[in-house]
């Protein structure tokens, strides 16, 4: 398994494994923007790209894991945790945040396993599914 910066050559692969991009053309544009900004990284197993993640610094000047997306056939292979650990090790601020919906129990488990702890809620982003914000010190 290895993690590297995403390139424009990865765009179609990332859009294909992203469960939202299938039904939301805006997500493809967002993935393109993340790649162009240099904030997107891909996790590979062998020659296959199985996941991607995005680390930015727009959350009150702190590191923020904006996205971790693991393709369905690559789930439970450690790619999500590898991306989170990669971001923890490379975050340039002392504080690192991430968030996920209350309904996304897998991501909550992953973040807690990586040493994140709940830090608050944001209501009204998705109807009837609050966003939980998580916090970790950078490694």
Note the topology.
Layout: E1 2-5, H1 11-17, H2 25-37, E2 40-45, E3 48-59, E4 62-70, H3 79-90, E5 95-101, H4 105-113, E6 117-122, E7 131-137
Parallel strand pairs: 4-5
Antiparallel strand pairs: 1-2, 2-3, 3-4, 5-7, 6-7
Structural class: alpha+beta
CATH superfamily: Gcn5-related N-acetyltransferase (GNAT)
CATH topology: Aminopeptidase
**CATH architecture tag:** 3-Layer(aba) Sandwich
Count of alpha/pi helices: 4
Major beta sheet, strand line-up: 1-2-3-4-5-7-6
Q: Spans of 5+ residues with little confidence (pLDDT < 50)?
A: none
What's the story with the biggest beta sheet?
Answer: 7 strands, mixed
What's the total number of strands? Answer: 7
Number of domains: 1
Alpha-carbon distance between the two ends:
21 Å
**Any idea what the radius of gyration is?**
14 Å
Morphology: globular
Helical residue percent?
25-40%
Mean pLDDT: 94
CATH level 1 class label: Alpha Beta
Percentage of β-strand residues: 35-45%
Order of helix and strand elements from N to C terminus: EHHEEEHEHEE
Structure overview:
With 139 residues, this protein is an alpha+beta fold. The chain has one domain: Gcn5-related N-acetyltransferase (GNAT) (Aminopeptidase, 3-Layer(aba) Sandwich), CATH 3.40.630. The protein is built from 4 helices and 7 strands. The chain has helices spanning 11-17, 25-37, 79-90, 105-113, and strands at residues 2-5, 40-45, 48-59, 62-70, 95-101, 117-122, 131-137. It has a 7-stranded mixed β-sheet, sandwiched between helices. The chain starts with a strand and ends with a strand. The model has no long low-confidence stretch (mean pLDDT 94). Pfam families: Acetyltransf_1. It comes from Massilia mucilaginosa. This is GNAT family N-acetyltransferase. Residues 1-139 form the N-acetyltransferase domain.
